[in-house]
Amino acid sequence: THTSSQNKFLQPLSKCEMSISDLIEEFQPDPWPVATGKRPLRSVGTALSIAVGLLESVYPNCGARIMTFLGGPGTQGPGMVVGEELKEAIRSHHDIDKNDVPHMKKAGRFYEALGGRAAKNGHTVDIFSAALHQTGLHEMRHLVTKTGGHMVLADAFATTLFKQSFQMLFAKNDKNEHKMGFNVNVEIKTTRELKVAGALGPCISMEKKGPNVSDNEIGIGGSNTFQLCSADPSTSLAIFLEVASQQGQAAPGGRGAVQFISQYQHSNGTKRIRVTTLARHWADPVTSIQHVAAGFDQEASAALMARIAVNRNETDNDGPDVLRWLDRMLIRLCQKFGEYNKEDFSTFKFPDNFTLYPQFMFHLRRSPFLQVFNNSPDETAYYRHKLMKEDVSNSMIMIQPYLYSYSFDGPAEAVLLDSCSIKPDRILLMDAYFQIVIYHGDTIKKWMDKGYHDTLIVSCFVLLSFSQFKYLLLSLPSSSNIHNLSLPFVII
After folding, report:
1. What percent of the chain is modeled with pLDDT above 70?
2. Where are the beta strands (DSSP E) in 71-180?
3. Phi, psi of 111 (to 5 degrees)
4. Cα angle at 232 between 486 and 385, to 5 degrees?
5. For residue 105, what is the enclosing H or E element?
6. 304: how many CB neighbours lie within 10 A of its CB?
7. According to DSSP H, which parts of 280-356 are helical?
8. CB of 210 within 8 A of CB of 129?
9. How many CB atoms lie within 10 A of CB 441?
10. Helix axis angle, 137-147 relative to 104-120, nearest 10°?
């Protein structure tokens, strides 16, 4: 009976692909008229609850995805984020600060509980939002974060950019297998001097206690094992460790070790396990500060500090206090590892592997992850979700955009994110992960206006220059493939 009920709703794709394709092609807009001054009725929470309930009944503890496509906010039933009347505006950051949010808290609790149910069974929920107004991503953010899903914010589903970006979700490797894993279980084992303080990322706690679990929690704590419902090649998890034994740390010749045991279900259905073990020598922070400094990775540290700052902002809801905390942490770092004469700032000097870190903090303080001005709550939720999920490389692009210069002097090169990089004979491309900006220098723009890049110049004197000019333009990413610069989704 259970099998027959299951087959009534769920079938292998090979058996129903044609029927699904026909259904999608026959989709039509809802013919029910929408009264003047009202919003369309959408039962987003009910639809998601049915999908989660169906999967947890027939496929518990098995990799699965629920893809939600939103064209507007939920306006009725559980999880509604705004009323049916258009005169009722959807909440803004200003409304949240004033606590004038009649639906937000109730909807947030509903979607968070729904995310807990899906995550418990290893099911992922993706949300693709395409509308010119807010759709409720702020309330639904925990549903996506807990399950490790994708969150996409776009203007319309019909754009070429969205379609191409969506196809990248189903990218395959050279073995024709999808680049995704499910039910990822990460267990952390440490030597006795170290304890696991917590994790930050698209995961949930497995609530597995042990002697290496710290009482001081950072993010999701109280466990040495965490679960990610799904993962792709750019998914990352930040693990925070605490030094529990100062005596062990100072032991000459001693080493601290950390082992990550990751078990997951591959997209081809097989179960896989990966074990990664790291060992480092202990260094006394008083007598061997140079050894501590030598192990500093400024990019990884900036990405970790960004996650901690976002988590503090989410839990404490005090933006100014988080900025002051970042400033204090930077000052402490400068005092600890900087070389300077007291009361003489001109003598300050950082080790080479620290020099960019203050610059990263400068951009982080002004980023949309911590500054909500000119952003809706949905946009803020989207930005923060991407930061908490992506790897260090992509996180750094979000924090401090990359600026590339294209010129006649050679191949593209990275240049300073400064006005001094603007030259009349250069084309600049700024990759900020969420946006791509292309700037044409004054000379380049004049040549383009005259169509020189489309014209064959016969004169030997200028042939080489204009051939290079044409190649220069062709080497830039076009609007049809610009999404390849950042993975897996770039919606411009």
Report:
1. 88
2. 123-130, 151-154
3. -70, -30
4. 65
5. helix 104-120
6. 18
7. 289-294, 298-316, 319-337
8. no
9. 18
10. 20
Q: What's the CA gap between 15 and 277, in Å, rounded?
A: 44
Residue whose C-alpha is closest to residue 479's, from 442, 426, 436, 448: 436
Mention every residue, 6+ apart, whose C-beta is less than 8 A from residue 89: 82
What is the bridge-based pairing of β-strands 344-349 and 339-341?
antiparallel
Distance CA 278, CA 449 (A): 57
Nearest to 107 by CA among 148, 60, 75: 75
Q: What share of the chain is helix, strand, coil (3-state, %, to 5)?
A: 40, 25, 40
Lowest mean pLDDT among 11-15, 243-247, 446-450: 243-247
**Rg over CA atoms, the chain:** 26
What whole-number distance in Å separates Cα of residue 317 and Cα of residue 330? 21
CA distance 194 to 199: 15
pLDDT in tens, 180-230: 999 999 999 999 889 999 999 999 999 999 999 999 999 999 999 999 999
Contact 140, 164 (CB under 8 A): no
Q: How far apart are the first and last CA of the chain?
A: 49
CA gap 62, 123 in Å, rounded? 7
Q: Is the pLDDT of residue 491 over 90?
A: no
Q: Could you report the per-residue pLDDT of 73-111, keeping only the tens digit for each?
A: 999 999 999 999 999 999 999 999 999 999 999 999 999
Q: Can you say whether residue 332 is alpha, beta or left, with left for phi > 0 and alpha for psi between -120 and 50 degrees?
A: alpha
Cα 125 to the chain's mean position, in Å?
Answer: 15
Q: What angle do CA 312, 333, 314 make, to 5 degrees?
A: 5
Distance CA 139, CA 183 (A): 24
Q: Which residues contact residue 454 at a Cβ distance below 8 angstroms, ignoring those fewer than 6 apart? A: 470
In the chain, the amino acid numbered 406 is Y
**Cα–Cα distance between 212 and 304 in angstroms, integer?**
21
Among candidate residues 134, 137, 117, the one with its CA nearest the CA of residue 126? 137
CA dihedral 337, 338, 341, 345 (to 10 degrees): -150
pLDDT interval class at 165 (50, 70, 90): confident
- Nearest residue to 277 via CA among 337, 206, 362, 188: 188
Structure tokens at 407: 């010129």
How many angstroms separate the CA atoms of 226 and 229, rounded? 10
Q: What is the mean pLDDT of the chain?
A: 87
Q: Which residues, in sequence order, are CB contacts of 282 under 8 Å at separation 6+?
A: 193, 248, 249, 250, 251, 254, 255, 256
pLDDT given at position 472: 53
Residue range 363-377: mean pLDDT, rounded: 94
